Amino acid sequence: MIESFFQYEFLQNAAITGILIGIVAPLLGVFIVVRRLSLIADALSHITLTGIAASLLLEKRVSPVSEWNPIYMGMVFSVIGAILIERLRKVYKHYEELAIPIILSGGIGVGVILISLADGFNTDLFSYLFGSVTAVSRDSMWTVLMITTLVVLIVILFYKELFVLSFDEEHASISGVNGRWIHLLFIVMVALVIASSMQVVGILLVSALMTLPVASALRIAKSFKQTIGLSIAFGETSVLVGLFSSYHLSVPPGGTIVVTAILILIMSILYKKVRAQQWIKGEA
Amino acid sequence: MKERTIVKLENVSFKYDREWVVKDVNLEIEKGQFLGLVGPNGSGKSTLIKLMLGLVKPVEGSVQLFGKPLKQYDDWQEIGFVSQKANSFNSGFPATVIEVVKTGLVSRIGAFKFFNKKHKEKAMDALKIVGMEDYAYSNIGELSGGQQQRVFIARALVSDPGLLILDEPTVGVDAKHVTEFYELLARLNKEQGITLLMVTHDIGTITDHATHVVCMNKTVHFHGASEEYKEFSDEDMNQLYGHPVQQLTHNHDHHEVNHYD
User: Does the reported pTM lie above 0.90?
Assistant: First the structure.
């Protein structure tokens, strides 16, 4: 893969985009998981699909000659979905989680109609569902680089606000933290990162890259900063090993990335078990 | 308004939906007091605290903090708060004790600025006051209820507040540590000069430690020095609570238990 990397632009695009999302997806994933919002990533990835479908349909109907990059429309839909979830959470104050299946099924429902209107399922769509090492354009790579930079900067700048809001909302409120704005900013970032990640990991598996590395890190880390560091390390390992094996095995990277992340998760659970047993023996 | 008045509530009323939870409360808390706020379940104690902290807005009346109307008040580091819910946080949360204590500085540091070494030292100092400095790098979820409670007090103390508000802080703390806990509060009150407001069920113990007591059931029924409160007759108490009350901790000498034969 190394020689081919310098030879083929598409491999460079996929690898660089992969490295970027390997940082930024688990970074936001930590906050998503500790705030028990894991399913929001799923809902947003499904509504991103609606955006992709809308883009494919518009391309076909409006300008069949030029090629559109569906990632932008995906981002727009994802951000709108994020804002809708927040609205719905207010409507159903006592059933906040209801917002997630509403948006998730709504996204798929509209998406299926749009896909059929755009003449059904083709290879393009398959690569959006499960990821691809060949489909990432240079253009998308730059977009993902911009979003990664923006998200990392915002997280550093608002780290203490995001942390206090995740740990204790009431305390955040009496600390003068404007929870509503920070939360909106956060969920818009999640929407953008999901749309960025989908080309490499695929829509159906994008939430895995946000949650599985965090699930592994939680078994081992003591502090919040450690959790972030380990999550990124695990996410990055999953992406790199996944992309490499995807290229050599000719299977979609979504599958290989998620399987790698699962293997890391199993190892971290076993690690904790072994450590606990050693500790018991040491005590005895 | 006297200069020493830290909190002033004037004719404050509040309702969720239709029923009044807090009605016509007038209350002043003065600097240096250790005030116990007692009352039966659902008497509006926690709501009254939320009103003082601006977490809910009064339907009628006004709240003043340190001489300023609540709307204009923005000096939140002056007020430390240990919530009843502090104990029911997500105990699997991956944070160390020091990381949690540092969040008490968020309002002092302000937006667009970062935690630095000085903040860490402040957090360590606060942990020393509550005797938890050895646990600075432990995971918060691994501590006992009483230890966690101390950490949350350290978080409230780290911004050097003039007023510390505690909502049922002894819930979930085992009896053995409750005495220690009151000693800690007395020290904060006397040595650090911090004004304390503590909501509690434990009527007997609070009168032994607090300088003043407020007894409320939607509205304030008694406000005065603890000594006077001890004179407050059982009959008055029963009327207030709507059923006979045994002041268990108060009357350790003659412990009577009613049997319904």
Answer: no
Q: For residue A22, give the CATH number of its domain.
A: 1.10.3470.10
Residue B78, chain A, CB below 8 Å: the answer is: no
Q: B53 CB near a chain A CB, below 8 Å? A: yes
Please check whether residue A111 lies inside any domain of the structure: yes
In contact, B84 and B171? CB cutoff 8 Å: yes
A104 within domain boundaries: yes
Domains, chain B, ordered by start: 5-241 (3.40.50.300)
Question: Is A60 part of any domain?
Answer: yes
| Residue B139 contacts A, CB cutoff 8 Å | yes
- Burial-class residue A273 by CB neighbours within 10 Å (0-12, 13-18, 19+): exposed
Closest CA to A20 of A184, A159, A227, A199: A199
Residues of B with Cβ-Cβ distance to A166 under 8 angstroms: 93
Q: Check B106 against A160: CB less than 8 A apart.
A: yes
The count of domains in chain A is: 1
Residues of B in contact with A220 (CB under 8 A): none
Contact A205, A131 (CB under 8 A): yes
Its domain, for residue A23, covers: 2-206
Contact A41, A60 (CB under 8 A): no
Q: Could you tell me if residue A257 is inside a domain? A: no
Q: Is B74 on the interface with A (CB under 8 A)?
A: yes
A263/A205: higher pLDDT: A263
- Which residues, 6+ apart, have CB-to-CB distance to A95 below 8 Å? none
With a CB-CB cutoff of 8 Å, which residues 106-165 of chain A face chain B? 157, 159-161, 163-164
Which candidate, A124, A131, A145, places its Cα nearest to that of A259?
A: A131
A217 and B CB contact within 8 Å = yes
**What are the tens digits of pLDDT across the range B44-88?**
999 999 999 888 999 999 999 999 998 888 888 889 999 876 666
Write out pLDDT tens, residues B24-47: 999 999 999 999 999 888 889 999
- Residue B116 sits at the vertex; the CA angle it makes with B131 and A227, to the nearest 5 degrees, is 80
